Automatic annotation (TrEMBL):
UniProt keyword Protein biosynthesis present: no
Matches recorded under InterPro entries: CBS_dom (IPR000644), CBS_dom_sf (IPR046342), Diverse_CBS-Domain (IPR051257)
Keywords from the named record: CBS domain
CBS domain boundaries: 8-66, 73-132
Organism: Kitasatospora atroaurantiaca
Record-given protein name: CBS domain-containing protein
Coiled coil ranges: none
Protein origin, superkingdom: Bacteria
Amino acid sequence: MTTAKEIMHPGAECVREHETLADAARIMKERDVGALPICGENDKLLGILTDRDIVLKCVAQGLDPSRLTAGEVAQGRPMVVEADEDVEQVLRIMEQHLVRRLPVINHPEHKLVGMISEADIARGMPQERVAEFVTAICAE
């Protein structure tokens, strides 16, 4: 059984809820990533911020990314998986909720330990399963 921990990108870094979108964009550029978990007090996961969020919820609205914070664009409760979760279950969750990135937490501390992205799935899964995943995610 392949687990989430085996395919995830370890060491995901949070953007803090009070950091600006401009700060988040700089972190994304430095880390060469398209999404960051948004963390609040005690590293509580508040959401996921994507480069697309910055463009659509800030720049395209004529808002100032140096004033708008990550916490202000966080919406809903993010889906997460535990590090020891079977990767097939991980894929089902991502397909069902049409998410392209998924935070991975450890148990029992529930601390963020990594992220799973489409690229991680492509590297860690057989081609035919990757094709099924991409078809499911892109169907909507």
